[in-house]
Amino acid sequence: MRLNRKSDTPKASGLGINRRQFLKRSGAATGGLAAAGFMGAPMMRRAEAEGKTTPVLDSPIEVKRTICSHCSVGCGVYAEVQEGIWTKQEPAFDHPFNHGAHCAKGASLRQHGHSTKRLKYPMKLVGGEWQRLSWEDAIEEIGGKVLELTEQHGPDSIYWLGSAKFNNEQAYLMRKFAALAGTNNTDHQARICHSTTVAGVANTWGYGAMTNSLNDIQNSKSIMFIGSNPAEAHPVAMQHILLAKEKNNANIIVVDPRFTRTAAKANSYVRIRPGSDVAFIWGLLWHIFENGWEDQEYIDQRVYAMDEVREEVANFPPEVVENITGVPEDQMRDTARRISENRPGCVVWCMGGTQHTTGNNNTRAYCILELALGNIGKSGGGANIFRGHDNVQGATDLGLMSHSLPGYYGLAEGAWRHWARVWDLDYDWLESRFDPAEYTDGKPMFSSGITVSRWIDGVLEEEEAISQRTRLKAMFYWGHAVNSQTRGPEMRQAMKQLEMMVIVDPYPTVAGVMHDRQDGVYLLPAATQFETYGSVTATNRALQWRDRVIEPLFEAKPDHEIMYLLARKLGFGDELVKNYEMNGTEPLIEDITREFNAGMWTVGYTGQSPERLKLHQQNWHTFNFNTTLAEGGPADGDYYGLPWPCWGTAEMGHPGTPLLYDTSKRVSEGGLTFRARFGIERNGENLLADGSYSLDSEIEDGYPEFTAQMLKDLGWWDDLTDAEKTEAEGKNWKTDLSGGIQRVAIAHECAPFGNAKARCNVWTFPDPIPKHREPLYTSRRDLVANYPTWDDVTSHYRLPTLYKSIQENDVTGKYPTILTSGRLVEYEGGGEETRSMSWLAELQQEMFVEINPALANDLGIAEGDMVWVEGAEGGRVRVKALVTNRVAREVVFMPFHFGGMFQGENLHDRYPEGTAPYVLGEAANTATTYGYDSVTQMQETKCTLCRIEKAS
What's phi and psi for 270, nearest 5 deg? Predict the structure, then answer.
């Protein structure tokens, strides 16, 4: 949003005054940590000192188009390169998402291209000292150890931990790599940020992703943020949010334990007790049902089991809700009224809602609220899930998870046979790569692997309790911040027990220094995403193409090349790249894109060919800032980034689906129904839509997913070509590799996946209707009897999982204060990259804990004091006290971006020389505790207990 005022001053040409002109005229300057890097940037006036001037290249300028590599908003960036050096960047004013906006992190991207903090060459730890290696020796040694461990302990003894920082092609290749290595022990950051969203949302209406888009929020009349703070976590998204407030007078409601920067922009702020989300949502629905504010026609046509929700909600009258959440009745009713009277409205959530033992219950409750109000499938409505890392959505879609193959196909035999066909590999050979034995969870090939949230227990748990042959013996941390995970002291113990650790990253990361080992640790320098190219999926399901800005610095290699080098050493290199052209040892990115295009029919990753994505990238300016629809130009009629599902083949030309489940459009033009994923009836009750269908559908009612037989029954079989008939025979819409079944269904304006009701009852989950359950470490012992956690589970994702045996122990006497965590605008994730950027380090130099003034006074703590925060399992961090009313008296808050300190110990000297970040600090998760979601093994970071004392 840009505010202009009338002036007699002549206007500058073009778009008006730019940042460079503004800073030049204002004489802005900076100092401290940032001075050396920032004053040399081309946006600043040239510095002069003692007769010396900063050298400026006058060589030709190449302009590259890329996408910010921090959060998932997907901001466009123009990068200027001279003689192979990244000399300047500008936010893209013509980009349909950011429209010329940048946050602090985005503005710092160029420092990736010349950072001296980068890992420069392969290294290994020998006797506590880092030694340089050649790539050949590194691959030989690491690969040799993997082969040795696989021979001794089986393929499941190696964990291949991937990254949300991969582009789509690398994420896909990593999952394929793990499959060919014979294991499902692979995962990435989605597990610990939005896995409960994916599971909860997908099991409600079919797809586990953001339903609308950031741009579409401009059309909202109410926006409720719960566990989401975009002003810091997704700053550029705020322009869309504030446009809604400006244009529509949208009511903004922030529900959070902490008064955030987003709350400062809200019409209403609601302080909630951490861990009480379901009770809060049921409290809203109590008022909605009581006043008849629900959309009953929508519910009758498109929703299953809302009557069962009514029964549960009846148990949460205002006095009960206030007792659990701390929110009084008048504020609950006011919030319910605001979202009911201002429709369409959306709900936005992030990790404040997902990172709980009850995370899947929370996300389903949010969905049910929106279904009750009739907000799903409406412009301005939706479940707007803001993802974290730049490609955490894409890496999830591409299957970099322990429980599925690419495209959410799962791990059943049919899924493996489908992908064996796509990979052109013999299924029997693929099966032979896996451990053939059967364990508690079944055969490893067909059972979910250990999750990233639990790799610690995969190392430390008794072997007889693990549903695989042995414990984990080696870990690959590939683009991962271990300090973003809970239970820091046990993590160090697990690291010491491993036989080998391999860190693959542009930076050494906290994993490289916190392990307390003397040997058996390798560091491999990966290129950043600006030193490779490919596609990346934004939070709204849109795919964007990145150019390669510069060649890899130092001895860094792109991730997909490193994967091939390892695969070649491990004996399956030819199989991994069978369908790809090779440039030396680097697989061609476009061929990887085409391969997943050929297989991912379930979520419509089939229509976004490299050619179409590049066409969109070169024509940012043609896409409408509100609708994201191209208006003229070569992509006319496409939605920007072809948001999935983009049905059929690229030749079919589907425009993408900007709003999921929007029946007001034709399916061929981006419309959609709810997915018929859960059958056609249950207990005699219809699960298909009743009188609701997409515009111009030839089936004017609910219908199941399309199969070859259904086409025959409808008389549409002969719409297929002869070649399509041959491929489609006996197949369905997600296994027909010709795309013919999808093409014909859409030709008749039907959704290939059927037309069903969204369901409120997920009968396959521990709580079919979401229930409020107290956190494992709850400060409200009086509520445990009525709202207990689950019983302990013998095996879930191959490991025992504890619930009741932890909750039944009352630790509130020693640990009385609730501890929660969250983001800062200056840093991203575990912070290793961003704390290594001088421009950002200048802005936020110390780790801290926020303490309410009353609690600080009770503890004798003053602003700026150093304090110990000790978690309920004994992990301790030494941090600075920030005394503030942002948090309630019974709650403290810590950001989770810091590392390089461990329980008071400074780890600076353990980094390879010159690579330690500018800013070090204790990791908040050293003090966080055990607790995992009952469906996805999401870690609980938003609600545990602690004690605070002044440090001596």
Answer: -120, 115
Q: What is the DSSP string of 232-293?
A: HHSGGGHHHHHHHHHHH--EEEEEESB--TTGGG-SEEEE--TT-HHHHHHHHHHHHHHTT-
Average pLDDT of span 15-19: 35
Report the pLDDT value the prediction gives residue 20, as an integer from 0 to 100.
40
Distances (CA, A) of 508 to 73, 831, 891: 26, 12, 34
Cα 196 to Cα 103, 200, 275, 742, 790: the distances in Å are 28, 6, 14, 29, 17
- Write out the H or E segment, with its range, that includes residue 561: helix 559-570
**Which residue, 583, 558, 562, is CA-closest to 573?**
562
d(CA 710, CA 900): 59
The token pair that represents 572 in the structure block? 């399956």
Partners of residue 893 on adjacent β-strands:
820, 850
Across the range 644-649, mean pLDDT stands at 98
Q: How many CA atoms, within 13 angstroms, populate the side-chain half-sphere of residue 509? A: 25
Q: SS3 for 814? A: coil
Which residue type does 57 have?
L
Name the 3-class secondary structure at 264. helix
645 upstream amide cis, omega within 30 of 0:
yes
Strand, helix or coil for residue 179: helix
Tens digit of pLDDT for each residue in 356-386? 999 999 999 999 999 999 999 999 999 999 9
The DSSP symbol for 294 reads: S
The residues, any chain, with a CB within 8 Å of residue 5's CB and separated by 6 or more, are none
* Residue 35 pLDDT: 36
Measured from the Cβ of residue 427, the count of other Cβ atoms closer than 10 Å reads 15
Q: Are 298 and 306 in contact (CB under 8 A)?
A: no
User: What does the DSSP assignment read for 193-222?
Assistant: TTHHHHHHHHHHHS--S-SS-TGGGGG-SE
The Cα–Cα gap between 79 and 897 comes to 27
Count of CB atoms situated within 10 Å of the CB of 795 = 15
Give the E-state strand segments of 573-680 in sequence order.
582-583, 586-587
% pLDDT > 70, the chain: 94
Rounded CA-CA distance 937/4 in Å is 49
- Residues 304/688, Cβ–Cβ less than 8 Å: no
- For 318-347, what is each residue's pLDDT tens digit? 999 999 999 999 999 999 999 999 999 999
Buried b (16+ CB within 10 A) or exposed e, 279-314: bbbbbbbbbbbeeebbbeebbebbbbbbeebeebbe
Residue in the block written with tokens 């049905």: 647
Please report the pLDDT score of residue 58 as a whole number.
85
Q: How far apart are CA 913 and CA 821, in angstroms?
A: 31
Contact 278, 268 (CB under 8 A): no
| Predicted pLDDT of residue 112 | 85
Q: How high is the pLDDT of residue 453?
A: 98
Helix segments in 326-444, DSSP class H: 329-341, 351-354, 359-372, 392-397, 413-423, 427-432
pLDDT of residue 16: 34
Q: Which of 820, 813, 846, 838 is nearest to 920 (CA)?
A: 846
The rounded mean pLDDT for the chain is: 94
- Tell me: pLDDT of 37 over 60: no
Residues in a beta bridge with 732: 707
Question: Closest by alpha carbon to 316, among 288, 295, 292?
Answer: 288
State pLDDT tens for residues 256-274: 999 999 999 999 999 999 9
- DSSP designation for 20: H
Phi, psi of 546 (to 5 degrees): -105, 140
Averaged pLDDT, 495-521: 98
N residues, the chain: 952
Q: Which residues pair with 90 in a beta bridge?
A: 78
First-last CA distance in the chain: 48
Residues 163-172: what's their mean pLDDT?
97
Residue 324 three-state SS: helix
Its pTM stands at 0.94
CA–CA distance, 379 with 343 (Å, rounded to integer): 10
